[in-house]
Every structure is written in structure tokens, then in C-alpha cells.
């Protein structure tokens, strides 16, 4: 008989964060869970640390870096729990985190996902994410990102979907919709999964009492060309796969307008061509996304009204620029810190 919950941590050269992350999970008030560490061919001391200090952790050793999406899938296939819980290796969970997530969803069969309250490790009084927000232009962002921690709700509320950095997914939902799309490698794979869940009628709660602190972009630096290229590519695929008719056709001009609007800012202001290259990559490989769209939309069960209830309206383009200013401040803050361990 397996455990009721399986906590999956994907790791790639995360030794400097891993010990605190694992100790925080082992310190949970919830009992009856297993920890599965999926190591994506780390070259640091991650595996030595786990084998010596955490012998009860189940380890999946990959021979290459398979990314966040495939890494989590490897863990899910190994897991025995009814609840699949994903946690970033640079996140530190409060003792009641897992208990609060499970308690929020266990008595409602329509709930397939739950989101945590994620605070910045560097700024514990600032919200990193309270789940995923999505608008009608298919733009996804961290819900309440950059807001003071006390600006969050205090009771569970329904939202679009969870950030996979600290999320719970019911196994029954994953059996219905499939796992993370491994073509994404990393970034927006959680938006894609949540959207597929929503299209099938599964709901998500944000659980403010399920709290973690998150270093944010420890594996790939915030604003890096690598991250921006994948974000650009995966945005194209996520939209094509999941945006339902008739909204896709009704809002396609807005989707294109907002997307094109971001390009001059990225290229001229930030000198970032990677986002543009990512869009090109996404369009170049569009045939696969279209094939997936056909199957996803064929199986859609949620009504347009149900989907509209958890999608945000279009907003002033200037608001989009303000939405990510806290990440720029975080990068500047880190650049001013002494070099060495981010987590002390």
C-alpha cells in the first residue's frame, strides 16, 4: 500500500539549496507521504548529500538533464500517492504546508489542483506567487506577484491554476488529462497542465495557509537568454494547444497585439532577442502543438462560462510592464549581495 501523498522534487545541481528543502519536507505535520528526488544528472554533490543525510528519500537518477517537465513526470511515474505534490528544490516549506494542501482538496471531487502561498526567500514579506493568473490574451503570470504578503486572501479561493513550484495535483486528474508536456522542458508547463485540467472541468484552490519560501529562478537566472527563449517558445505552444473556441478566434487579434507589443520593449529596452527567437522556435514547430490541440479540444468538458469565471479581463498594456518590476528589483538586490550561498 503506497503513501497518501508523494512529494516530488526535481534537482539539477541544487546542492546548495537541497538540504534545507528536504529537511523542511521531513518536518511536515502531515504524515503518510513519500519524498521522491529526481536528479537530472547533477555534477555537484547533490546525490552524495541525499544518500548520506536522507537515506529514506527515493531517488530517481537520470543520465541527462531532462528538464522540469520530464523530471516531474519521471517522479510521478514512480510515485504511489493519491496526491502528487511538486516542490522546487530551492523552496523551503513551512511545517503545515502539506497538511493544509491536502485538507483543502480531499473532500471535493471537483478539485484537482491546489496552489501554495509562495513568498520570496530574499523578501519573506513579498509574494512570489499565489498560483497562476491567465487573461483573455493568453498571458499568464504569478498571481499577486510582488504584492505585500498580507495582501493575500486568508481563506481558500478558487483560481485558474497552481504554480508547480509548490503545487498539489490529484492523481485522478492527471490520469484524466495526462502529465506535464515534456516538449516544454521547463517554464509554462504548469500553465499548460492547469489549462488542460480546466478544459476538462477540474477546479483549483489557492490555499493561503500552505506556505513556502522560494529562492526563485535559482536554476536559470531571472532574465537570462535561456529562460526568455523557452518562455517565448512555450507561450506559443500553450496558447495554440489550450485556448478554446470561440475565444481563440474572438481574441486572436488581442493575443497577437499584446504579444507583438512586448517585442519592442524586450529588444530595444532590455536588449533581449531571446524572447523573439523563442517565438520563432514555437512557430517553426507549430504542427505538433496543433495536433495536441485537436485532441485537447475534442475532450473539452468545461463550458465557456466556467472557463470565463477564472480568466482575467484584458488590461492596459502599461500595466503589463509594471507586473514584473518586482523581479527586476529582486535581480538588482541579489547583484548587490556578497557572492556565495543564496540560502544561509
How is this structure best described in words?
The chain is of the alpha/beta class and 344 residues long. 42% of the residues lie in helices and 19% in strands. The protein has 14 helices and twelve strands. It has helices spanning 15-26, 46-53, 67-78, 97-105, 171-177, 189-199, 225-242, 247-250, 252-269, 274-284, 286-298, 304-308, 317-323, 325-335; strands at 5-11, 33-40, 58-62, 83-87, 91-93, 111-120, 127-129, 132-134, 140-142, 157-159, 166-170, 203-214. The strands form two sheets. Strands 1, 2, 3, 4, 5, 6, 7, 10, 11 and 12 form a ten-stranded mixed β-sheet that branches. Strand 1 (5-11), helix 1 and strand 2 (33-40) form a beta-alpha-beta unit. Helix 6 (189-199) runs parallel beside helix 7 (225-242), helix 7 (225-242) runs parallel beside helix 10 and helix 7 (225-242) crosses helix 11 (286-298). The two termini are 38 Å apart. The model is unreliable at 339-344 (pLDDT under 50).
Q: How large is the radius of gyration? A: 19 Å
Low-confidence stretches: 339-344
Largest sheet: 10 strands, mixed
Q: Sum up the overall morphology in one term.
A: globular
Along the chain, the helix and strand elements come as EHEHEHEEHEEEEEEHHEHHHHHHHH
The percentage of residues in β strands lies in 15-25%
Secondary-structure class: alpha/beta
Annotation field: number of helices:
14
Using DSSP, what is the number of strands? 12
Q: Residue-averaged pLDDT, rounded?
A: 91
Q: State the end-to-end CA separation.
A: 38 Å
Helical content (DSSP H or I, runs of 4+): 40-55%
